[in-house]
TrEMBL record:
Catalytic function, reaction form: dCTP + H2O = dCMP + diphosphate + H(+)
UniProt protein name: dCTP pyrophosphatase 1
Function, in words: Hydrolyzes deoxynucleoside triphosphates (dNTPs) to the corresponding nucleoside monophosphates. Has a strong preference for dCTP and its analogs including 5-iodo-dCTP and 5-methyl-dCTP for which it may even have a higher efficiency. May protect DNA or RNA against the incorporation of these genotoxic nucleotide analogs through their catabolism.
A GO term, aspect molecular function: magnesium ion binding
Gene name for this UniProt entry: gb15018
EC primary class: hydrolase
Gene3D superfamilies hit by this protein: MazG-like
Keyword Cytoplasm (UniProt): yes
Assembly, per entry: Homotetramer.
InterPro entries: DCTPP
Cofactor: Mg(2+)
Amino acid sequence: MEGEKKVVAMEEEVKEEVVAVDVSLKQLSKKLDDFAKERNWEQYHNPRNLLLAMIGEVGELSELFMWKGEVPKGLPGWGEAEKEHLGEELSDVLLYLIRLSDMCGVDLGDAATRKIVKNAVKYPAPSK
Ligand SMILES: Nc1ccn([C@H]2C[C@H](O)[C@@H](COP(=O)(O)OP(=O)(O)OP(=O)(O)O)O2)c(=O)n1
């Protein structure tokens, strides 16, 4: 029971911190680096393991949409708990993607920005 109270208190603390920030990829990357260092998990965070972990999380994300038929934009009919779960699975994919990029020496923000420019050249908008 004491342990449970501690977990609830920790979650409240994290919630307060999370609400306050408009977070950047670089900030998330730093948090992930600290998280791994504090647990001595750097030894496990090699590119292959992170890629497999991310694919596992993509599977968990897919499960939320499985057998649902059409899912319209905005997810009408989904409950709050389901939407919160969706946010967690999307986050797991994002966090592993950022960590994977870091462990590969790729600046994801820079690479994604460049890719958007490249996409615009490949698929020009119709002129008005
Ligand atoms: N070696 C690890 C293990 C976990 N994580 C972090 C990244 C993910 O955001 C989250 C994944 O944790 P779990 O493996 O416990 O997966 P879930 O949160 O999806 O739990 P479950 O699979 O029980 O639904 O934790 C990490 O950075 N490195």
